[in-house]
Amino acid sequence: xxxxxxxxxxxxxxxxxxxxxxxxxxxxxxxxxxxxxxxxxxxxxxxxxxxxxxxxxxxxxxxxxxxxxxxxxxxxxxxxxxxxxxxxxxxxxxxxxxxxxxxxxxxxxxxxxxxxxxxxxxxxxxxxxxxxxxxxxxxxxxxxxxxxxxxxxxxxxxxxxxxxxxxxxxxxxxxxxxxxxxxxxx
Length: 186
Hints:
This protein is an all-beta fold. The protein has three domains: about 5-60, SH3 type barrels (Roll), CATH 2.30.30; about 65-125, CATH 2.40.50.140; about 130-185, CATH 2.40.50.140. It has one helix at about 95-100, and strands spanning about 10-15, 20-30, 35-45, 50-55, 60, 65-75, 80-85, 90-95, 110-115, 120-125, 130-135, 150-155, 160-165, 170-175, 180-185. The strands form three sheets. The protein has a five-stranded antiparallel sheet, with no helix packed on it. The protein has a five-stranded antiparallel sheet with strand order 8-7-6-9-10.
């Protein structure tokens, strides 16, 4: 069982038999009256977001979630194909299920897939991922301040803001949770 203060962003819990992931967390301390935790929860089956308020003594059930390591094969239309590296069994997931993880998938990469029962509820990406820059705008001469950011397109097709010294061909680390540039690979 979780306490309301355990419901940090990203935690998976179960309410009324359905799995939810915390997408927003806000705690208000009410003096001697304890605290109130306001969260926004995304239903991991249908994608709906609901607001929920918990008081300090409430108990929240943990979701029974299992994770399986799979290898990403390829995408075709709105379907993404994966393989279980142990059994070589292949399966597909819809673009709706893959969601924002699609921008970080490279053929051959291994990643985790979370299941609630036998339903896929989430794709677990590594916290940071190294991707090659396939296009970066040239720097304007004289614009050498380090705080200037420009757009760079990565090998998976997503665009991120990077410092002005990044150029096409560089390999950079991207935070998969925020989509932000972290560092250039040395």
